[in-house]
Amino acid sequence: MKKFVAILSAAAMLATLAACGSTAATTSTAASSADTAASTSSEAAAADDTAKSYKIAVVQQLDHASLDEIRTAVEAELDAKAAEKGITIEYKDFNGQNDATTLNQIGTQVVSDGYDAVVPIATLAAQCMANACAEDQIPVVYAAISDPAAADLTGLDYVTGTSDALNTQFILDMMLAINPDVKTVGLLYSNSEANSTTPIAEAKAYLDEKGIAYVEGTGNTNDEIMSAAANMVGKADAVFTPTDNVVMAAAAAVSETLTEAGIPFYTGADSFVTAGAFATCGVNYTELGTYTADMVLDILESGNVPEYHVMDGGIITVNTETAAALGIDYAAFSDMASQVVEVTTQQ
Q1: Residues 124-129: contacts with CB within 8 Å, 24+ apart?
Q2: How far apart are the first and last CA of the chain?
Q3: Predicted model pTM
Q4: Which of 64, 186, 219, 306 sits CB 3.0–4.6 Å from 236 for a disulfide?
Q5: Residue 65 pLDDT
């Protein structure tokens, strides 16, 4: 576990705080500079005796690029705020490996170990942490929940967070801007992923209204998702996936399969695009993670739990390598969004 200690003092003293855990984890605190500490007044020195200290659990549902980016941003902001405020913030990473049993065990540990707040990243993690923390009312501040209401994460006094709600219609408008003659759209998603429920329903309604056919491909493992994607070759003119964590875990392989078949892959997050998908319009996950961390500290310091916050989107992200492989001119995107970000595939 990494340790960085953030405590203000008026003298040259620096108190150290050690933490330990039984699971693989990362613990970090951030320290204010000794020069700043030496220059504080005697009143600040007295306050230092009761310097605030918070213990936060960061619970990631599974490993993939989007969730990794959010976790990194959350922890970077906690470090920055610790240094800025002269407080100690100890955080510890947990990973549920996309397994409800594991996540429930983590929830039990978080409660028994006396954490002051929990930051679950993704829907299943948030649901398990909300259940675990219900009796003790430990603040649960989730990150990247596409539809908090559908996930039963609203109406709970101790639960809030950030939403990456998807503008499904806009992404399908992007699809039609590139190819107005699309006849059939592939809808690729996991039927066990709560994040996909609403946007897939929205996509079907939109396509029905436009008179465009669609084929569905679902799965709950990498192999099933890959098989579903392969089955769309020769059937779909374009494929859409929302912010689906199961598909994201296989995003690189899916993107390669579809691109080789000449099928543009439109997705719900920029991490899909850096994995090889063609384009998306959504939120910036670094900004989402930063905002989530700020919410956590505001709640710990004020005791007030606000309503969840929907992050601003509107950023179109395009993979230029994929666009070139598909032979797509995406100039039309410039008229659709305030910002078009060009990326390449990350290995």
Answers
A1: 124/61, 124/96, 124/98, 124/100, 124/194, 125/59, 125/60, 125/61, 125/96, 126/151, 126/153, 126/159, 126/161, 127/151, 127/152, 127/153, 127/194, 128/59, 128/96, 128/100, 128/103, 128/104, 129/59, 129/103
A2: 28
A3: 0.74
A4: 186
A5: 82
